[in-house]
Please model this.
Amino acid sequence: MKAARVLPLVAILAGCAHADYGQLADSTTTAVALSREGFAEGNPLLSGMSWPWIAATKIVITQAVKLTPPVVCEPGLTGLALGGFGAALWNIGVLAGSGPAALPLIVVGGGFFWESFVADARKTCADPWAFGWRDAG
Model:
């Protein structure tokens, strides 16, 4: 399966913020769904793309948001984290037979992890390169 070869690369490129993990979780569950008969991407902006292009688009957008001013970056990364994990839970629900069954988990999980998502967004926006090449030396 191609996904087994490409997903580790996607994980390496994604980064270390909660938003990266959320988008990676969404991309992974999307890859699993699209590899099965009868499933399609639900986001109209991404529909028609193969899952590697969907994953790459999500990574690029997430990394671009990290480089915006804090007034855009902080709510942007918080939304990408919440949206990514929420979409991953929705995808798991759809794969299990009912996306709406995941809604309580999305709401409870979003509430439970909200402060963590906000704190991580502030930290990442203050220094988007914290886990980048500058830390290697």
Observations:
- The radius of gyration is 15 Å.
- The chain has five helices and no strands.
- The CA atoms of residues 17 and 33 lie 24 Å apart.
- Helices lie at 2-14, 18-34, 51-66, 70-96, 103-126.
